[in-house]
Design goal:
Helix content: 40-55%
Number of helices: 12
Largest sheet: 8 strands, mixed
Shape: globular
Order of helices and strands: HEHEHHHHHEEHEEHEHEHH
Length: 309
């Protein structure tokens, strides 16, 4: 995928960044949530159209996919077209829409030992190769915008922020869901989806040099309103834990960064994480949420809180 045909907003954004204007550096923190993460496309659409410069991006899970493509200069319209045409469930090894598909696809693998620490299994090779092709084999050093992929070390539980080396391999690690994918080895560590430890990585966006950060939260509330089976109760418990983790992390971020942080929550709670064929709905929700806050975003950037500059 090339970088031709950038919109006028993207060109304006690049000129402003290169022009060295005295303004706060704007960062994006793009959260994880499977298909709900397509809302990031809508956020970028609006910022791009309005010529609002983006100076740093940190992404988790789908946020890493969308953020990495944008940071690499991929035209948004072409990116959306590609995502709509591809069967990402098949390419990424996800079942189509149903969590019961996860159980069916992985029941044998869950209890089978594989020597994935010595060499990539075929499924990991396929995942990495897909993202290598998706990013045209770029490295982080090739990117137009400073970018970070947030992952988790499966051995220690630590957050690992990737900012160098192969972009494609980093993305593969960033979307590797335990139980569906094997951890991806990078520099001696085995990494999985960073949503386990940092659902909306605002702190990472700040660490990339941003003065102001828009954090896009696309997490769901709960798995179901009325769990019945033991498995549904287990999934409900996990969703409660993730919801509370997100709330706590965002509350701490608000306390730490104050007016330098703006949290955007598109209306995508109804979208199932594995419904990766649903691109336009979440994208429009992201667009609507960003448009509603445009006056606040513009004022926020223009006033630039004193502690940010």
């Amino acid at each position: 995928m090339g970088t031709r045909g950038r919109s006028r907003g993207r060109s304006q954004t690049r000129r402003r960044r290169e022009g060295g204007e005295h303004r706060p550096r704007l960062g994006l923190a793009l959260g994880g949530g499977g298909a709900r993460g397509y809302a990031h496309l809508g956020v970028l659409r609006v910022l791009d159209r309005e010529g609002i410069p983006i100076d740093a991006i940190a992404g988790t899970s789908m946020g890493a996919v969308i953020g990495g493509a944008y940071a690499g200069g991929v035209d948004l319209a072409k990116l959306e077209e590609v995502l709509k045409r591809l069967d990402l469930n098949k390419l990424l090894g996800f079942p189509h829409s149903s969590v019961w598909g996860v159980v069916g696809n992985t029941a044998t693998e869950l209890f089978t030992k594989r020597d994935w620490r010595r060499a990539d299994p075929e499924s990991t090779q396929a995942l990495v190769e897909f993202f290598e092709l998706f990013t045209r084999r770029k490295t982080f050093a090739d990117l137009e915008v400073p970018f970070a992929v947030v992952t988790a070390d499966i051995d220690t539980g630590e957050e690992v922020v990737l900012t160098r080396g192969s972009l494609g391999r980093a993305m593969a690690a960033g979307v590797a869901i335990p139980g569906i994918h094997y951890p991806v080895g990078i520099e001696g560590r085995f990494l999985v989806d960073g949503g386990l430890v940092n659902r909306v990585p605002a702190d990472v966006a700040f660490s990339l040099g941003a003065d102001l950060v828009i954090a896009v939260d696309v997490s769901a509330e709960l798995y179901t309103r009325e769990p019945h089976s033991s498995f549904e109760v287990l999934l409900q418990a996990e969703s409660i834990l993730l919801r509370e983790l997100t709330r706590l992390q965002l509350a701490l971020a608000r306390e730490r960064y104050g007016a330098r942080l703006l949290i955007l929550k598109p209306a995508v709670q109804h979208v199932k994480a594995l419904s990766l064929e649903e691109v336009e709905g979440p994208a429009r929700a992201g667009e609507a949420a960003t448009e509603a806050l445009l006056p606040q975003i513009r004022s926020w950037i223009e006033r630039a809180p004193e502690e940010a500059v």
